[in-house]
Design a protein that fits this description.
About 30% of the residues are buried. α2 links the parallel β3 and β4. α2 runs parallel beside α3. The chain has a 4-stranded parallel sheet, with helices on both faces. Strands 1-2 form a two-stranded parallel sheet. It is an alpha/beta fold.
Length: about 210
């Protein structure tokens, strides 16, 4: 998701700097400035962030699942605990954070960590855009396509409509588009993009011939 978002931002004329571990900087898209550091350590941001910039937080455990509760705390939570205070101190004016759809009947540990991240951002005083996807469809994540007919039905039944929309599926293109839209349309205060807003804002950023 990060590489795709960076590429889109570069195409649209933005200047992008991305933090990468030493040895991984070659994986960043051409045109992106690499910042070598550890996203889990606050000191990595010292002297790097600049007042007036937008900060996009995409650090997290790959393929979240119930068995990764400990990793959610040591990676997902640690990264926002390090970056949010550093961004506020540096005068970042807009912070973009990928959270998760909530409440939900499963993945309680993941929801708790992401909710704590949202709390830290609310208390930081920065303008924040929080995206709350539930599941992102893309390469390696295609099996949930089989659930689309189920979602279609649930979104049309009054008893299940709200939950199906809140915990709906979004495509990778919609997610990347929503992130770019958030960067280009900074929030004033604390703004949340639930799944319907991710879809709508993401589709705005798609090429005209690929919108559906």
């Amino acid at each position: 998701m990060g590489r795709r978002m960076i590429a889109r931002l570069l195409e649209r004329g933005h200047t992008v700097r991305a933090m990468a571990r030493r040895g991984s900087e070659s994986r960043l898209p051409v045109g992106c400035d690499a910042v070598i550091g550890d996203a889990l350590r606050g000191e990595s941001y010292d002297g790097v962030l600049r007042a007036g910039e937008t900060f996009v937080h995409l650090v997290g455990v790959a393929h979240p699942g119930p068995a990764k509760a400990a990793e959610f705390k040591t990676i997902d939570l640690a990264s926002i605990q390090a970056s949010a205070p550093a961004a506020a101190r540096a005068g970042i004016t807009h912070f973009v954070y990928v959270s998760v759809g909530q409440p939900a009947p499963v993945m309680k540990a993941y929801q708790a960590v992401r909710a704590e991240g949202e709390r830290l951002l609310r208390e930081s005083g920065m303008n924040c855009t929080v995206l709350r996807p539930w599941y992102v469809l893309g390469p390696g994540h295609r099996w949930p396509y089989a659930l689309l007919p189920f979602y279609w039905i649930c979104e049309r039944l009054p008893a299940t409509r709200e939950g199906a929309r809140r915990l709906g599926l979004v495509t990778l293109d919609e997610m990347v588009g929503a992130l770019v839209h958030a960067v280009e349309n900074p929030a004033r205060g604390f703004e949340v993009f639930p799944v319907p807003a991710i879809r709508a804002n993401g589709r705005k950023m798609l090429p005209a011939d690929s919108r559906r």
